[in-house]
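Q: I'm writing up a methods section and want to include an example of the input and output format. Could you take the sequence below and give the corresponding predicted structure tokens, formatted cleanly so I can copy it straight into the document?
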Amino acid sequence: MQAVILVGGQGTRLRPLTLTVPKPMMPLMNRPFLEFQVNLCLRHGVREIILSTAYLPEVFRSHFGDGSHLGARMIYVTEEEPLDTCGAVKNVERYLEGTFLVFNGDVLTDLDLTTLIAYHREKGGKATLYLTRVEDPTAYGLVPLDRGGRILEFLEKPSWDQVTTDLINAGTYVLEPELLERVPEGEPYSFERQLFPQLLEEGVPMYGFPSEAYWMDIGTPAKYLQAHYDILSRRLPFRFEGEEIKPSVWVGEGAEIHPQASVFGPTVLGPGCRLEAHAVVSSNCVLGPGCRIGEGAHLEGAVLHEGCEVGPDAVLRRCVLAREVTVGERVHVSDQAVLGGRVKVGDDNDLRYGIRVWPDAEIPPQTIKF
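A: Here is the clean output for your methods example:
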């Protein structure tokens, strides 16, 4: 079995974080998000993985190489122009042999691929879609099924009076290669808007695979933060690195915690982090390698990428700091605020309410107040 992972999108909903790093390579628990999908494949014996790339393709190859160190074979195919979800798979058709998997590159899941593939073969259809349940179906594309699991229709973002199911397309498919014969070469083409509806019209058997597996689209800052919190609370499998110095507090090699600093779990401190006196790192924090937290600073639900510096008495709550952000004294960052790479925030600023600051910006002291 082969897997195609679609990683070509520019991650516009996660900007400014994705202005310098492709969304699938964004740090999640201090490792590239794409590693979660690759490891999921490997756990289920899928060892040939094709990455369909477009935006910053060199970043993927430099990290994963040929995949041999993981026990995988990685193949890279770059789109010259954006080809949408199905067009991207058509673009790698020459590498496909037999039944294959397709993954949306921004979905975090612990789906049982082995059972999904067995279900596909048992039903004998041409396409099987992983489906998950959501509380508000009107924000998604619904996929009603008949009693045998066959897909009846696709309802894109219906009104409440159209809702007949809470099952949505969860972005993972098992497909037969002959389906790609219907797809034009070198043109943008969508699974969701074009191929799947066309197959239904033609009466081609397609099945849904409902699953209660963990599922999260990490495409917004709120969901990106929530993915960290869910992993920290053990809602899906994860191998924590570093020493567990007390329950649910993992500390990387070379980290320094002042005797008068406090750390509460679940929290991860990357290698080389340093906490000064009276600093408090509370629950649901993930600090990347080499972060420095100043005296009296307080962090809760904060995700910091590598090399961030937080000044004395600063307060960070439910926010994201990209690489090498510097936050001055008494700065407050909260409410899903996102600071891009190398941003410098001067003393006594207050960044809230989902504010987003683009990379390399400098905010003078006492500029933003609420």
